């Protein structure tokens, strides 16, 4: 938690210290901020070039790059998955800036985990097994989610839109562009299979890795308050929205920053 800063008017020195904390801790949190859509965009722009508008998420009126993540009465969030944002893209995002607008009376926390710490904790035999392997990531993880809608014939809008979004391949272990550290780069929502493996072997390995990722030792849990802000490094984390609040209204605004092509990390470099 970083205190006593105003994210809407950071000095150069303040931002540099925040950026150092971002690289060190992977996810950083702030309380009692008052970020308008304009100031949220301006803050995110200091981390890099902004992503184009999300193809499925709704957005703040007049601000297509400010996605709305919202639960409304009669529209509960449904099942949640551990995920890394938008790994279905050939170039996944660098980071995200998420701001709480309104919240349920209880519940609705978000949990982050360090995939860098996960990789470091893997036995060397597993690390060697993962070397030079790639995984298939696809956008179909949104099918049936609260961001999906169906037309008059009952067809999924996500399925229709995603027909033009090809699956992509990413290394199972990637090297962080700035720190040089290795991280396991998979997630339950978008990672479909391991390229070149038989389905049975692929499913077994991914299931084992996903289970290992869920260890609480790798996690931090954040309780939102109105005006709270979370900024996380999408290159080396996963997160999970705790959907324990039914259809109580909950609204957050998200802005995403462009990343770079993931680079494979080789175990022999350690």
How are the elements arranged and paired?
Blueprint: H1 12-25, E1 27-30, H2 37-45, E2 59-60, E3 63-71, E4 95-102, E5 110-114, H3 115-121, H4 124-130, E6 134-137, H5 157-162, E7 168-171, E8 173-175, E9 182-184, E10 191-194, H6 199-213, E11 219-222, E12 229-233, E13 237-241, E14 250-257, E15 263-264
Antiparallel strand pairs: 1-12, 2-3, 3-14, 4-12, 4-14, 5-11, 5-13, 6-7, 6-10, 8-9, 8-15
Describe it.
By secondary structure, the protein is an alpha+beta fold. It has a single domain (about 10-255), classed as Clavaminate synthase-like (Double-stranded beta-helix, 4-Layer Sandwich), CATH 3.60.130. Helix content is about 20%, strand content about 25%. The chain is built from six helices and 15 strands. It has helices at about 10-25, 35-45, 115-120, 125-130, 155-160, 200-215; strands at about 25-30, 60, 65-70, 95-100, 110-115, 135, 170, 175, 180-185, 190-195, 220, 230-235, 235-240, 250-255, 265. Strands 1-12-4-14-3-2 form a six-stranded antiparallel beta sheet, with helices on one face. The two termini are about 30 Å apart. The model has no long low-confidence stretch (mean pLDDT about 90).
């Amino acid at each position: 938690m970083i205190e006593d800063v105003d994210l809407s008017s950071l000095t150069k020195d303040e931002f540099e210290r925040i950026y150092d904390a971002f690289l060190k801790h992977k996810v950083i949190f702030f309380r009692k901020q008052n970020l308008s859509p304009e100031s949220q965009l301006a803050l995110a722009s200091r981390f890099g070039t902004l992503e184009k508008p999300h193809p499925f998420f709704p957005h703040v009126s007049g601000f297509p790059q400010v996605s709305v993540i919202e639960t409304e009465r009669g529209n509960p969030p449904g099942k949640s998955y551990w995920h890394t944002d938008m790994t279905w893209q050939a170039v996944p995002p660098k980071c995200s800036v998420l701001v709480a607008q309104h919240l349920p009376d209880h519940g609705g926390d978000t949990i982050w985990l360090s995939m860098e710490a996960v990789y470091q904790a893997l036995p060397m035999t597993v690390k060697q097994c993962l070397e030079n392997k790639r995984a298939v990531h696809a956008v179909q993880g949104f099918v049936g989610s609260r961001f999906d809608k169906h037309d008059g014939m009952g067809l999924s809008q996500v399925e229709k839109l995603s027909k033009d979004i090809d699956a992509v391949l990413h290394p199972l272990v990637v090297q962080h562009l700035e720190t040089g550290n290795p991280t396991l780069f998979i997630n339950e929502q978008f990672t479909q299979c391991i390229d070149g493996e038989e389905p049975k072997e692929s499913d077994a390995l991914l299931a084992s890795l996903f289970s290992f990722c869920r260890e609480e030792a790798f996690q931090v849990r954040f309780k939102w308050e109105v005006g709270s802000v979370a900024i996380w490094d999408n290159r080396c984390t996963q997160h999970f929205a705790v959907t324990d609040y039914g259809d109580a209204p909950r609204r957050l605004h998200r802005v995403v920053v462009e990343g770079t092509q993931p680079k494979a990390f080789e175990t022999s470099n350690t």
